[in-house]
Amino acid sequence: MKHILKVFILVFFIFSGVPIISDAHAHSLFNSSEETLGDYRVQIATLPEFPQIGEKSEILIRVTDTDYSEVERFTMGMRVFFNEEQIDAVRQQSINGAHFTTDFVFYDSGNHIFRVDLYDATDNGETLTFTFNISTQSPFGYIFISAIAAGGIIFAGVIGIIFIPKLIKRKPKF
């Protein structure tokens, strides 16, 4: 009877996990965000996830419409602020395809404000400005990663303390 119950529980977990697996998505990056204004949705992310001070990082931008269809062509510019002072800019340019990538070096730890401007984005030719916060690697990043790792280790330890002694007791001794 115990074996039938174990098989039933195993089958239940397998079949309950199928919808999760069939709709699996990659996790969103830590430094990623999206904003919708007018008929456009702009997504931004950094690569690596936690930019390091003084090292080159990639800024990834994707532009779609409100139906999540990628825009074929757009005109954009970008301004970067730190402590309410503009520290860098990407000049206005026409982009073919929905993706724009640029390299950026963060020199200061903390929040950087990225303002992405889509030009001629409205019917009357107005500019839409999308605002994003991007954080550089700080002590918080190390604490965040350590906390997640510690949680996983503690969870594995608790499971091990609960189930391993039960498995050892069940083994017949010869």
Overall description:
- This protein has 174 residues and is of the alpha+beta class.
- It has 2 domains: 32-137, Macroglobulin (MG2) domain (Immunoglobulin-like), CATH 2.60.40.1930; 138-174.
- It contains 2 helices and 8 strands, in the order αββββββββα.
- The strands form 2 sheets. The chain has a 4-stranded antiparallel β-sheet with strand order 1-2-3-6, with no helix packed on it. Strands 5-4-7-8 form a 4-stranded antiparallel β-sheet, with no helix packed on it.
- It is elongated and about 80 Å long.
- Residues 21-27 have low confidence and may be disordered.
Total DSSP helices: 2
Low-confidence stretches: 21-27
Strand content: 35-45%
Query: What class do helices, strands and sheet pairing give?
Result: alpha+beta
Could you tell me the number of beta strands? 8
Global shape: elongated
Order of helices and strands, N to C?
HEEEEEEEEH
Residues in helices, as a percent range: 25-40%
Characteristics:
174 residues, alpha+beta, Immunoglobulin-like, four-stranded antiparallel sheet, 2 helices
Q: Could you outline the blueprint of secondary structure elements for this entry?
A:
Elements: H1 2-22, E1 32-37, E2 40-47, E3 56-65, E4 73-82, E5 85-96, E6 99-105, E7 111-119, E8 128-135, H2 139-170
Antiparallel strand pairs: 1-2, 2-3, 3-6, 4-5, 4-7, 7-8
Overview in brief:
By secondary structure, the protein is α+β, with helices and mostly antiparallel strands. Helix content is 30%, strand content 40%. The radius of gyration is 24 Å and the shape is elongated.
